[in-house]
Structure formats: structure tokens, C-alpha cells
Specification:
- The protein is 54% helix and 0% strand.
- It has one domain.
- With 115 residues, the protein is mainly alpha-helical.
- Helix 3 packs across helix 4, helix 3 crosses helix 5 and helix 4 packs across helix 5.
- It is globular, with a radius of gyration of 15 Å.
Length: 115
Amino acid sequence: MSTSDRFTAAPSHDPRRSAPAPQTQQKITEAYEFIGHELGALVVPVGVAWQRVLEMNVLHDKGQSHPMLAGSYLAGCVFFAALFRESPVGIEVDVKGRSAKDAALLQRAAAEVRE
């Protein structure tokens, strides 16, 4: 596969989902990893973590274009794991509107993509 093929392939997208279909996320991840490798840059796999917790249906706002609290919290956990090379599981941060159960699930999802 040529470099141009990696970035022009357009896998199907299920419009009923709030994020790219799994095959789309895989293509996005591959593209970012390819570019990250070429540039020697850290790639933070937030999209992969989002894909793992989509069933929660609390990651996007009603317009499906901006993250809600849970989506932002998940992204923060993934960045924490990537930048500090530590699992975010067990981090206690009081965030109004976020349940301990949801926080634990989001922390685990971030830790899983770190591995």
C-alpha cells in the first residue's frame, strides 16, 4: 500500500453512531501512527479509547460534534497515560457531574489503550 493509499481510503461510516465505525477508527489510528512514526512524535490514542466506551452514549453533546464531560475526562486520562507513562486508574479528582463508576470505567479504558 502506498502512502497516498493510506490516507485516501474512505471506509464506511455508520451515521447512527456518534463516532467513526470501528474500521474507520482503525484507518484513522493507522494514519496517525504512520505520521507519528515519520515525525518521531508521540501519538495519543484518544480515538481508540473513545471507540471502547461508545456504548455509554455520553461522550458527545447533542450535536455529536463536541465532547461532553465524560468525553473530555476520557481524553484527559488518555493524555495522562501517554505523557506520564502511568495508568490513570485510581486517580481521584473531584469533577462535578462525573460519577465514580463512570470515572473508573473511563480510567480503565485509557489504561487499556496505553498498554
